[in-house]
Model the fold of this input.
Amino acid sequence: MRQHLKRKYSLLAIAAAAVIGGTMVSPIAAQAAKPSILIWVDAPRLPGAQLYAKIMAPTVNVKVELHAQGDLLAKVQLFNRIKKGWPDVVFGPPNDVAVLRNPIINNAMALDSLLPAATWKAFGNGNNWCKGADGKTYCIKNDLAQSVLWYNTKLFKEFGYTVPTKMSELFAIGADLAKNHPGYSLGALGDQAANSSYFWPSQCPLNAEKSATRVVINSKDPHCTRVTKALQPLIDAKVYDPRSPFDAGFIKDVGQAGKLVANIGPSWYGDFVLRPASSYAVKAGEWTAAPMPIWDGEKVAYSGEYGGGIYTVSPHSKFPKEAVAFAMFMVGDKRNLVTVTNPDGSHGAPTFPAYGPGNALWAAKVNADTFWASSPYPAMAAQANKVFSGEKPVRYDTNGAWGAAFSPALAKDGNIQNALNAYATYISNLAQQLGYEVSTK
Amino acid sequence: MAKTKRYRQKNTFMYIMLAPYLLFLFFFGIVPLIMAFFEIPAKSLTNPNGGFDAFNIVLHDFRFGTAAKHVAGFMAIFVPLMIVFVIGMALMLDMNTAKWKKYLRMAYIVPASVSGAVAVLMWYVILEPTLSPFKWIINLFGVKEATQIWQTQNLVYILAFMAFFAMAGNWILIQYGSLQSISTEILEAARVDGCSAFQLAVRIKLPLIRKYVIYMGVLVFAGGLQIFVEPQLLTTSVYQGIANAWSFDQLSYTLAFTSGDFGGASALSIMLLIPSLLGALVVIYKTDMFEDAKRVRGQKIEAEG
Done:
């Protein structure tokens, strides 16, 4: 009996020790005199953030952490549980602003009062994405990922093509490639590529949030079907590839094989996809970008976006002003936009800044780059204010759904309308689950 | 009296040796289970009013049916393949004629040393026609592009083979071990009675290791039901979205971490516990797995009296 009791007590003692051990680990009190902020960024933004920490060291304690974007929501929810640990400012994918504003997540604060009106004005349309239905601004857009027409000037000359200004002209080039130059490609459509390059610029209503409780999703809208009708014969003729532009096979078979003639892609496509030796490794002096071709019968040659990150500030931040100041450094300071050294030896921010004054600084850097046949900057600038605004941030994971529903369906039989319908069904389910009413108009 | 004391002392040692396990079981088994149970009624966007309706909501999730189909298809291939192949190989390995036994055992353990996460990368390269060292074999079947293989509807087969190769080797050696426990007298007697090698394997050895086979079946079943790492890795880093919420565990993870629905995730986790628990009960009560231990203890108590 005694031994039995002893056993019981020793177990209790171990349990108690474990509990006490758990609570003893308390946070170190922040210094009241010097503000401190915690920044989370992805790898391309890391050099700029680290530079900022160095510059601010005398006045602000800046801690920079590299984080996996996909984990943000999970981590924030766990921080909400323990009521501490939130980073002050986070770089993330654009749809995160709606996800983080979701009342049960509640991790994006309104930023309007934190910057002077003149600064907000200088964004132009560049920050429209961040504006909620209530007119308040919930994020700062780091970069625009507006689609432009990247094309190979050498192959265009060789095949006798002129730069298309209408989508029908681009598709005519596709038809000619199929007939006279088989094996050559106009790009891959998997993942978000088909959306950012074709469906979104064509104003296909897929994540058209009308209010906090209503979203329009209609894959059979004429703005969607004109895309699928035009692309289907060219997919069948292998001019468009159903794989992802990042697929290892596509990179090897098409990108690196020099078979890519033109490719509608985001403004970052040049430096991130076309140019790197590990990616398509296109040759110097051959490629540049043109403005988006216009859909027949339209007045504006709209762009879509593929990414285009944002900064959000946590309402739990004790120093929101300092947090916003970091975001403004990233989008408006020459030291980040032009001079910071990246791990690959290149300099400056890698993507098209959404903030007007910052963009002017960055333009000079791109214009000075001799890699391109001619500077792709004018095309990017022409499209910067033409991102179609009907596509909105929504509370569900729209980007993941392209991979989850669209790509597998497209890979299955190459039928793009079926793949789009599969996407629409998938996101309709997601939307309803998260409290949206889904309609087709 | 002296005997009793020694027995009690032995009993204490037994509990001391058991204590670490019980501690872990309590903190990482029982406590999370209780926490999960109390988490279920939490309010979320998918369950705005809260309450145990969470079970119903999860069962009607638009991904639940497909996840069930995927997991069922995977298990229908993986579980029988494992049991038949493993037992067959173990029985063959146990035949004395195997001259290369030592090397064969080695050969079985090698693929098993490739863990699930690494296996994903390995199989990705093997089955990607542009990178594969066996591309000529793949081309022979008319496959030129990765999309012809890496499709959601093919994953039941790919993942079943992946899991099979990762796990079969270990189980072959374990079952070989269980065959070694059969008394040589029985085998000799059978041989004297004119039993052929095949009859010896099927009529004598197999019934004698029946409980280990059931034990393996239950573990393989529980492991298969909870498949997570392989499809999750595929869908997040190899082919984006190819296996989104493909299995039950992934659906639970998605509910918790992309929909913020911890209640639904807990409900699904608890539902998943039930079949595994039933399996464990089968092993304990319907096989004689734990009978030896009881008998030994019974003998000791007799001695005490």
Observations:
- Chain A has two domains: 36-138+309-350, 147-305+367-439.
- The interface with chain B takes residues 3, 7, 11, 14-15, 18, 70-71, 73-74, 77, 102, 104-105, 191, 242-244, 247-249, 252-253, 395-397, 400-408, 411-412, 429, 433-435 of chain A (CB under 8 Å).
